[in-house]
Amino acid sequence: METTSRVGAQPPAGEGGQSSPYARRTVDGYLQASFPWYGLDEAFTGPRWLMQVATAADGTVAHGSIGHGDAPSVRGDATEDKERFAVVVTVAAHPVRRSPDGTGHLEATSVSSAAWLAGAGLLSITWPGGLDHTLRDDWVDQQTETAWALADDLSGPDWSTLSLPVDGVPTPFHYRESEFGWVLAGSTEAGVHVGAYGRGMSAYGLAFAEIRDIRAYAA
């Protein structure tokens, strides 16, 4: 798969699995990106919040996430069925290129990169109840490998397609859903890949738009 490495796939919640793995971040990392950030368009009037950015091996910002709605908690929590959230992942699009030290190459990114990061993000807040620590680790490892394989086969039977607006332009997305939530991924005319995942909000009603001032999200 032409994709970024698995950096940015967030670790599970802490011991006990009762808190969200996402801590709200400052805007500094987002401002260092050379690409535009995407979120839900202005039709969404709920809370919006920064999550995290990740850097590539050459130190440049590779991707990051923006949250919308309720801050997600791990599956198995009593409040999970009431949560309504969507997380939008923006991935810088670039070809294979040489590493800064000239000894190798940095991997290309693709729609599969966005699909993988969205799938990993959903897993990071998906913990079936009743599992002890060892079983949770095994479950996450297994599901993570499955998400990786699914992202590498976007034309396979596990994915369907739907068209959603991006900056007002109908754009094709790869889409799949499970008992834990939904995941989608596509590319924009602005030259970035967009992934998203969520629960409690229908993916079919979403629309995406470039964020004009990411600093407003740090308020």
TrEMBL record:
Start and end residues of each stretch annotated as Disordered: 1-23
Domain of life: Bacteria
Name of protein: Uncharacterized protein
